[in-house]
């Protein structure tokens, strides 16, 4: 009886060894485990005979049964490892570890940011310090202290987005002139880059755009200083051959005031490219790039500076305009559409 019991168990091991190779999935393998090692499986059935065995045979039979149980367990386990290895191999087939990796898409700075940085770099190089202030302003900083009293006709020039009666989205960066002079004693030389807002939206106007304001106040500052500073500035920004012209103009917060044109970056000032009329300067050879002037005495009075003791100049320029001229962008809307095919050209 013992002999046939032992042979039966060996047979189980042999059978399992023979069949494990046919298990090709985890499901097959689990079925095989249940068949051999399950509660009603082949090993359990064979063990039934143990009960009828005499005490002299039981130890040897029990020992063998344990060995076979372990053997079956490791046969199934090693098959599982084979299946796992094959699955990994499968997943890696066609994978070439020597291929260069895919480069993750990197972002780039927006052209407005780039232009702003470049302008600020040139101006800080000339000695100006960067300051900033709130985009939500009050009437006094945005208009009144800049020599635009409530009924001043110049307020019509700016279509304002109001938050409440006397609170508004700043229509220009010029309130930073006021804020700077209120908090500092002369001499001051600052630039204020930032967003500004107007009730304006068409092909060439967006409700939000960017400006950079400049202010220099000291003793004996002249219009000649203004001309020299701005000429050096535009030549660094647009190239040493750029011509500059100052046209008389009007702003409430400066007197005298001027608008500055530079020779057209597209046609070099010729007004045409070959036989074609230049569309950037509309055949004039000049493009306007900023407004400026000598700070009006009324602005000094508003901030508590003595207009008899100090003089200074201010200027304001539109960043979108500079970016369009510098990077040759023909349509303002490009800056706001966020088309990556456009944006990634500036990386
Ligand atoms: N604030 C003006 C505007 O938004 C721009 C400007 C013109 C600023 C002349 C100045 C200046 O400081 O002197 O149109």
Reconstruct the topology from this structure.
Layout: H1 2-19, H2 26-37, H3 42-47, H4 58-92, H5 111-125, E1 129-130, E2 136-138, H6 139-142, E3 167-169, H7 175-183, E4 188-197, E5 208-218, H8 223-238, E6 244-251, E7 254-263, E8 272-273, E9 276-277, E10 286-295, H9 297-303, E11 311-318, H10 319-327, H11 334-337, H12 340-343
Parallel strand pairs: 1-4
Antiparallel strand pairs: 2-3, 4-5, 5-11, 6-7, 7-10, 8-9, 10-11
Helix pairs in contact: 1-4, 2-4, 5-10, 7-9
This protein binds 3,4-dihydroxyphenylalanine.
3,4-dihydroxyphenylalanine binds at residues 172, 174, 213, 251, 254, 291-293, 314-316.
Give structural notes.
With 347 residues, the protein is of the alpha+beta class. It is built from twelve helices and eleven strands. The longest helix is centred in the N-terminal third of the chain and has 35 residues, at 58-92. The mean pLDDT is 92. The structure holds 3,4-dihydroxyphenylalanine.
Key structural traits:
347 residues, alpha+beta, seven-stranded mixed sheet, 12 helices, 11 strands, 40% helix, elongated, binds 3,4-dihydroxyphenylalanine
Could you estimate the helical fraction of the residues in percent?
40-55%
The CATH architecture designation of the largest domain is: 2-Layer Sandwich
CATH class of the largest domain: Alpha Beta
Q: Compute the gyration radius: what is it?
A: 42 Å
How many helix segments? 12
Compute the average pLDDT.
92
Q: Determine the N-to-C terminus distance.
A: 86 Å
Task: Report the sheet with the most strands, covering strand number, pairing sense and barrel closure.
Answer: 7 strands, mixed
User: Which structural class do you get from the secondary structure elements?
Assistant: alpha+beta
Shape: elongated
Enter the CATH topology name of the largest domain.
BirA Bifunctional Protein, domain 2
Task: Write down how many β-strands occur, each being a DSSP E stretch of 2 or more residues.
Answer: 11
Order of helices and strands: HHHHHEEHEHEEHEEEEEHEHHH
- Give the percentage of residues in beta strands: 15-25%
Q: How many domain regions? A: 2
CATH superfamily membership of the largest domain, which one? Bira Bifunctional Protein, Domain 2
Going across the biggest sheet, name each strand in turn.
1-4-5-11-10-7-6
Unreliable residue runs: none
Q: List the ions, cofactors and other small molecules found in this model.
A: 3,4-dihydroxyphenylalanine
């Amino acid at each position: 009886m013992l002999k046939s019991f032992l042979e039966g168990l060996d047979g189980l091991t042999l059978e399992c060894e023979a069949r494990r190779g046919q298990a090709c999935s985890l499901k097959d393998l689990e079925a095989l485990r249940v068949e051999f090692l399950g509660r009603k499986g082949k090993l359990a059935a064979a063990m039934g005979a143990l009960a009828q065995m005499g005490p002299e045979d039981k130890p040897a039979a029990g020992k063998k049964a344990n060995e076979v149980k372990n053997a079956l367990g490791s046969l199934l386990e090693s098959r599982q490892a084979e299946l796992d290895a094959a699955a990994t191999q499968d997943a890696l087939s066609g994978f070439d570890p020597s291929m260069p990796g895919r480069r993750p898409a990197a972002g780039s700075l927006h052209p407005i940011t780039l232009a702003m940085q470049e302008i600020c770099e040139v101006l800080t190089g000339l000695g100006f310090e960067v300051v900033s202030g709130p985009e939500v302003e009050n009437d006094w900083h945005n208009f009144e202290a800049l020599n635009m009293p409530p009924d001043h006709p110049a307020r019509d020039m700016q279509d304002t987005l109001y938050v409440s009666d006397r609170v508004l989205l700043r229509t220009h960066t010029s309130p930073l002139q006021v804020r700077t002079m209120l908090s500092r004693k002369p001499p001051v030389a600052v630039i204020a880059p930032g967003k500004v807002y107007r009730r304006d939206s068409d092909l060439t106007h967006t409700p939000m755009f960017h400006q950079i304001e400049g202010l220099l106040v000291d003793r004996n500052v002249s219009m000649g200083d203004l001309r020299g500073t701005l000429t050096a500035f535009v030549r660094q920004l647009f190239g040493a051959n750029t011509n500059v012209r100052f046209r008389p103009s009007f702003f409430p917060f400066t007197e005298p005031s001027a608008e500055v044109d530079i020779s057209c970056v597209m046609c070099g000032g010729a007004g045409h490219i070959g036989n074609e009329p230049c569309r950037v300067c509309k055949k004039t050879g000049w493009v306007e790039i900023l407004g400026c002037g000598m700070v009006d005495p009324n602005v000094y009075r508003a901030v508590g500076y003595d207009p008899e003791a100090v003089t200074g100049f201010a200027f304001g320029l539109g960043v979108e305009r500079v970016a369009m001229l510098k990077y040759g962008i023909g349509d303002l809307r490009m800056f706001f559409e966020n088309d990556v095919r456009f944006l990634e050209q500036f990386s």
